[in-house]
Design brief:
This protein has about 180 residues and is of the alpha/beta class. It contains six helices and seven strands, in the order H-E-H-E-H-H-E-E-H-E-H-E-E. The longest helix has 17 residues, at about 135-150. It starts with a helix and ends with a strand. The relative contact order is 0.17.
């Protein structure tokens, strides 16, 4: 099993993909979710973005065929300054990278800016283990992420509980523009 497989597959299900989707993954890591998305006929294009040059290299190797076909693109950059035009993506997702976002208000504004009307955002993370609730992560969710989504005019903002993976509890913040 690939690390983070249960929460990755769950996140992709939460995207509710339709036809001709253009998906942005923030913090794409080694490109596992990109590869799964590229296999779906409903996805026209998937763009993976990560701050790390070396991890972008890993994602390139994992997705070399999809990159050649033009279905996958990779961008090195910071989530607080998304190098994309307004309203470009129908879906935006992130799995286990929100912990590293330095400027949450600016990043959420940027996500809103590049999301098409009617588009969906899914931010997946862990908020504890079988034995322990992570108060710092839950505070970030309750005091920052959920309010910021609403303040930026996102609708249907929900916190969903997902699968336990390797002893960790997975949750996702879902919203629509």
């Amino acid at each position: 099993m690939v690390q983070h497989e249960p929460e990755t597959r769950w996140t992709l299900d939460l995207l509710n993909l339709n036809e001709e989707e253009s998906v942005l993954e923030l913090g794409c890591g080694a490109g596992y979710a990109l590869k799964l998305l590229a296999k779906r006929s409903s996805v026209k294009e998937v763009v993976g973005m990560d701050l790390s040059k070396s991890i972008i290299g890993s994602a390139k190797r994992r997705n070399k065929d999809e990159i050649k076909r033009g279905k996958v693109k990779l961008v090195q950059g910071d989530v607080k300054d998304l190098p994309f035009e307004d309203q470009l993506f129908t879906r935006i997702m992130s799995i286990h990278s929100v912990y590293f976002w330095g400027e949450l208000p600016r990043t959420i504004r940027e996500m809103y800016r590049v999301l098409k009307p009617g588009g969906t955002i899914v931010i997946t993370l862990c908020n504890g283990t079988s034995e322990e609730i992570w108060s710092g992560v839950n505070k970030m969710i309750d005091d920052q992420l959920l309010p910021l989504m609403k303040e930026n005019s996102l609708k249907n903002v929900l916190l969903k509980t997902g699968p336990r993976s390797r002893g960790y509890q997975t949750v996702a913040i879902c919203a629509e523009k």
